[in-house]
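User: I'm writing a tutorial on reading structure tokens. Could you give me a worked example: one chain, its sequence, then its tokens, then a sentence or two explaining what the tokens reveal?
Assistant: Sure. Here is the example chain.
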Amino acid sequence: MKIVIKCEHCGAPLDYNAGDYVATCKYCGYTTILTYEKPFTLEHALLPVNVEKGDVAEIVREWMDSSFLAPKLLSKRAKIRDAVLFIYPFWVVPIEATTRFKGIFERLGPGYVRKGTVSGSYDWVIIAQRASKFPTREYDVPLQGKIPYDFTKIPEYARVLNAEFGEEEAVERAKSEVVEHHLYLARREVDKIIEHETDFTIKDTYYLHAPIWDVTYTYKRKRYKVLVDGSEGKIIVGELPTPGLFDIF
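And here are its predicted structure tokens:
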């Protein structure tokens, strides 16, 4: 039986799932750490919903028309079956990192050791759900448009998701992903990395909710998915049918 947890601010029951770490009250917007181990004191931001449900189908059809990989007349022959607005939870970790590496360069003859450095400053975005397949690296998050979290800016039909882990785990994930990114860049200079070390400077991590339209369409009895940024109306990722022999006519 699910335990009823009430909002500490307004007393309304919180909407949460097993495994959630924090929950945001849909009645007053107050955010609570469900374990009550400490109060939630971090910045909580929101990307406002600027794309209405009636606009989503047209955005998807324009994307179909602009894609040279799409079958001919896909935008006219496809049927939009569903469009669901999710308000996804993210941790944003402002991070500066410097990776020093040593590797072997062997593309032009006998290998030799080369040293180098990769540095970067990022607002690294971590999806705050453990099993989510959300394509975070493809999502160019429009952070410049964020506002303080305001539940009145979220349509009633939207599904607000909660974070399943806290900022400490988000920071560790961000560090790991930044190191992998830096090593990817380092491999442009060496063929094999034999040593690496990274220093980090972490600034104030914050919690962000962002609107994402999950769109389903059908074409020739098959279903396909498209994710649309609900704040700026950009396509994040989308599935396209493979053109058949007769799709050129």
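What the tokens reveal: The chain has a mean pLDDT of 93. Residues 167-186 form the longest helix (20 residues).
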